[in-house]
Each structure stands twice: as structure tokens, then as C-alpha cells.
Design brief:
alpha+beta, 386 residues, 52% helix, 11 helices, single chain, 20% strand, Beta-Lactamase, 2 domains, 6-stranded antiparallel sheet, 5-stranded antiparallel sheet
Length: 386
């Protein structure tokens, strides 16, 4: 009967062992959960920081519709900070040469190296060239281990690893964003993806500026056409209201020329033998109506007649050799830029229109073609009066 009781005592010991083994198992899930929580918190903080950076770049794009530099500067600064990079640089590719468009935290030594190399054609010796030619990300965890990379540049710059992400537009690279580190190590995937986002934003900025300038140019052309049409209509109205009086027409032409071309002073001269006779004037510069100018190469109007072409001079006061008479007159009354356009009737020069400004510039739309088109009616009137 005593032998039958032994199995009962042996069964009690394993039960106690199970209770002792259960204690550490209960604590292990708590440690794993804490680690996962910290990892999720770190990822969330990183994602929020990246989101804030990309949002800031979009705000810069919105504030700079015609200026790419603030956008590029914001991108390279954010890339350096969020990717823990030693240096960052943004390169533009114009289809022929690669240019350094922006950089962050580069030392004077590195800048000297880049200024010596760029602009340059894309080459496999440079990461930017590889990314542009291959239209793909170039990741060099150890640049000195890459036999095709230009090692002396990395040594001079002080970087051991780099990442170059192309800025893609319609399947073609228009530049790259590069980040550099002093230690040889790979860049994590999330930083590669972030740099791709920055590259996309750079392309958005480039496109915005291009579209804005195209729209601005179209609006300028439409405005110019409307102003030209208005000025021409005004001249035609004066012609119809003064069929026998030439002077109101010439006065209207001079006034329209000054307003349309942004000139301070406008003069019209008629060819009278071997001289140019003042016919109309508009502006603050005093000009006697009985003024006669010789048709010689030393005067702007005279050369216009002799060479039968429009002549524009940026600083007439400085052209003492080419236009001695005109230069002295310009210094006397205080103007610099001048444009002289011939009035032609059936192949013959019958007069000239001259515009003057005190500074060395004329608005773009004041070209020979525009003035010829705008004042061809006045040329007809002048021809009829001679």
C-alpha cells in the first residue's frame, strides 16, 4: 500500500516547477512593448519633422513665384539637417553643363574645388554626372572604394560617402540634390525617399517659375499689342480729324512714342535737303522748333538717314568718337540712352523719330519693328506733306 503513494509525491514537484518558470515569461512582453512604443514614437517624430520641412519648402515656393534661389537654399538646408549630412549641394543641368545652384555648410576649401570644376559637362567621375546621365539615384556608401569616382575631389572635400538624387522632369534629369558625409556608411532608405521628395519639390519650383514667366511674357505681349493698337488708333483719329493739318498728327505721334516706349523725350525730324528739320517734340527737354541738324555720321539722326537703319546707343555721352556732335549735345542736356528710327516711304528716308532717356536703358518693346509698325501711318502723312 505504501508503494502506491509515491506517484502522488512525484506529480506535485513538476507543478511547482511550472509556477517558477512562468514568472520571467510574464515580464518579457512588457519590455518588447516598451521598445516598440519608443520606436513608433521616434518614427512619428521623424515623420512630423520631415512633413514640416516639406511644407516649409512648399511655402517658400509659393512666396517665390519667379525666384528659384530661396527654394533651393531651403532644400539644401533641410536636406542637411534631416539627413545628418556634413555637406549638401544642389546642381542644375541646362542640357549641356552642370552648374552649382545652391549649397549648405560647404567649407571654403570645398567651395574652391567646386568653383574650379563647375560648370562642367556631366561625367561618370562625379556623382551628379552619373545621376543626370543615368536618370537614377547614385548611392556611394564608400566613395574611395569606387574606382570610377574622382577620389581627389572627395579627399579635398572631406567626404567618404554620398547620395545623389536626380531632379526628374518628363523623364529627363534637370539637376541633382547631393548629400555628403564624412564617414563611409550607407544612407538609410527613408533618407533616400526624403531626398526624392525634395527633388520633386525642386522640379515643381522650376516648373512654376517657367510657367509664371511664360504667362508674364504672354501678358506683356498682350498688353503691348493693346497699347500699340490704342496708340495707333489715336494717331488715326488725329489724322482723320486733321486731314489738312500735319502738325497735330506729328504732335500725336511724338506723344504716343514717349508714352508707349517709356521715353522722357521724343523728337521727330523731317529730311530737308542735306539737313534734318525739327517737326515735332514731346517731353521736358527744351528743343527749338527751328532746329536744323546736318545729315552727317556724327549725329544720331544723320547716321540713321545715311545708313537707313535704326540705331540705338546705350550711353551716348560716352560715344565721343562715334558720335562727336551727338555726344556733346547729350552731355549738355543730360541724357544717355537714345534710339533713332527712320521713317521710310517707298524705300526713301523721309524723316526720323528719336527717343531719349536719362538712364542707360529702354523698355524691351521699344524696338525698330515696334516703332515702324506703330508709326507707319505717320510716315505716310509725312510723305504726303513733302
Amino acid at each position: 500500500m505504501k508503494a502506491k503513494k509515491k506517484p502522488l509525491r512525484r506529480g506535485a514537484k513538476p507543478a511547482k516547477a511550472k509556477a517558477k518558470a512562468a514568472r520571467p515569461v510574464a515580464r518579457t512582453p512588457q519590455k518588447t512593448e516598451d521598445s516598440r512604443t519608443r520606436e513608433l514614437e521616434n518614427r512619428l517624430a521623424e515623420a512630423l519633422e520631415q512633413q514640416a520641412a516639406t511644407a516649409e519648402i512648399l511655402r517658400v515656393i509659393g512666396r517665390s513665384p519667379t525666384d528659384l534661389q530661396p527654394v533651393f537654399d531651403a532644400i539644401v538646408e533641410s536636406a542637411a539637417r534631416l539627413c545628418d549630412a556634413r555637406f549638401t549641394a544642389l546642381y542644375r543641368y541646362d542640357g549641356d553643363l552642370v552648374h552649382v545652384a545652391a549649397h549648405h555648410n560647404l567649407t571654403p576649401e570645398v567651395l574652391a574645388v567646386l568653383q574650379r570644376l563647375y560648370p562642367m559637362r556631366p561625367t561618370h567621375e562625379q556623382a551628379s554626372g552619373r545621376a543626370i546621365m543615368g536618370a537614377a539615384v547614385v548611392h556611394l556608401p564608400d566613395v574611395l572604394a569606387d574606382p570610377g569616382y574622382r577620389h581627389e575631389v572627395a579627399i579635398a572635400g572631406g567626404w567618404a560617402s554620398l547620395l545623389a538624387v536626380p531632379m526628374m522632369r518628363e523623364g529627363r534629369a534637370v539637376g541633382t540634390i547631393n548629400i555628403y558625409r564624412g564617414q563611409a556608411e550607407p544612407f538609410p532608405e527613408n533618407q533616400i525617399e526624403l531626398l526624392k521628395t525634395f527633388a520633386d519639390q525642386a522640379v515643381i519650383a522650376i516648373e512654376n517659375v517657367r510657367l509664371f514667366k511664360e504667362l508674364e511674357a504672354r501678358n506683356s505681349d498682350l498688353t503691348e499689342a493693346l497699347e500699340q493698337q490704342t496708340a495707333t488708333s489715336e494717331i488715326l483719329r488725329v489724322i482723320s480729324s486733321s486731314p489738312t493739318d500735319l502738325q497735330p498728327v506729328l504732335d500725336a505721334v511724338a506723344k504716343s512714342a514717349a508714352r508707349f516706349c517709356g521715353a522722357h523725350d521724343t523728337s521727330i525730324f523731317r529730311v530737308d535737303g542735306d539737313r534734318l528739320r525739327a517737326a515735332a517734340h514731346h517731353g521736358p527737354v527744351p528743343q527749338p522748333m527751328d532746329l536744323l541738324l546736318p545729315i552727317v555720321r556724327g549725329t544720331l539722326g544723320g547716321r540713321t538717314v545715311l545708313e537707313q537703319r535704326a540705331i540705338q546707343v546705350a550711353n551716348l555721352q560716352a560715344e565721343t568718337d562715334e558720335f562727336p556732335e551727338a555726344s556733346a549735345f547729350a552731355a549738355q542736356i543730360g541724357f544717355r540712352t537714345a534710339l533713332s528710327v527712320p521713317l521710310v516711304r517707298k524705300g526713301a528716308i523721309i524723316g526720323v523719330i528719336q527717343l531719349r532717356l536719362p538712364q542707360s536703358c529702354l523698355r524691351r518693346r521699344c524696338g525698330e519693328r515696334v516703332l515702324r509698325s506703330l508709326f507707319e501711318r505717320s510716315g505716310f502723312v509725312l510723305a504726303q506733306a513733302t
